[in-house]
Amino acid sequence: MQTAILTIHIILAVILIILVLVQQGKGADAGAAFGSGASSTVFGARGSATFMNKVTTVIALCFFVTSLSLAYISSNKSSSSKSLINDTVQEENIDKQEEFNKP
């Protein structure tokens, strides 16, 4: 379950980055007024702003939901998972005690 949510989370992060980089800045219209020619877009002059904003909002909302769910899953993980470091130290202590107890 955690792996699936993490995979979705990473995909959403990449999509969100791409969407933010593709969007036209608010000050770009002022530059187009002086002849830079950047005002022509695939979706039209203002058509992309509302569409791209809505898509970005939905993707960002999904990203936050996956972030919160991953945090919830990791905080409720059982403490039965063992550390290899602790197991090695305990085994060494047991070995030392056995050697000490030998006549």
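Second entry:
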Amino acid sequence: MPRKLTKTRAELEVLFMNELRKDPACRVVGAIAISHGVGRLWHVALERDGSRIQPECRHRIWEITETLCSQFDLARAS
């Protein structure tokens, strides 16, 4: 199995937000922050504007996290 590329938190957050902005259900998410890994995934914190996050957006966040975690490792000192 090929090694995954390593990205900093900032790089991953940009990639994540670019994907998230494509989904109209996620327009209330203003920013995200990626922190330490939890198992094979990262912890993703959201900043939202206004109403609660719709279930469709929660699912999309999970999908994006799964996809990016499968492609990239989080740099240790990022």
